[in-house]
Prior knowledge:
Blueprint lengths: L3 E4 L2 E4 L4 E7 L7 E8 L6 E6 L5 E3 L7 E6 L4 E6 L8 E9 L10 E2 L3 E6 L1
Parallel strand pairs: 2-11
Antiparallel strand pairs: 1-3, 3-8, 4-5, 4-9, 5-6, 7-8, 9-10, 9-11
Amino acid sequence: QVQLVESGGGSVQSGGSLRLSCAASVYTYSRYCMGWFRQAPGKEREEVATIESGGRIRYADSVKGRFTISQDNAKNTLYLQMNNLKPEDTAMYYCAADPCKGTYGGSWRYRGQGTQVTVSS
């Protein structure tokens, strides 16, 4: 069982920045694919960014060039740096993990409770 606890959400104006953090209860490096997805009311879930256990990083087209996913393996913590935020980035953001061997398979076994990000224009 993996527990994930997010923090860092909040309200910002368009163009602002936030950094989300996700503390994992286990050592995840090279054992788990880690990522962030978001869910906004009335919209489909969107995979925002993923770090696969093999090291490959993927981003949704909507956030490329603005968001950066990273992890501190010593702290078992995943981050999402979000710059140049837009109102359409408003959503609940979830940290997620899935045991994988190199490639993310498309579903997350574990997720956190979520942290709200609200961007005003």
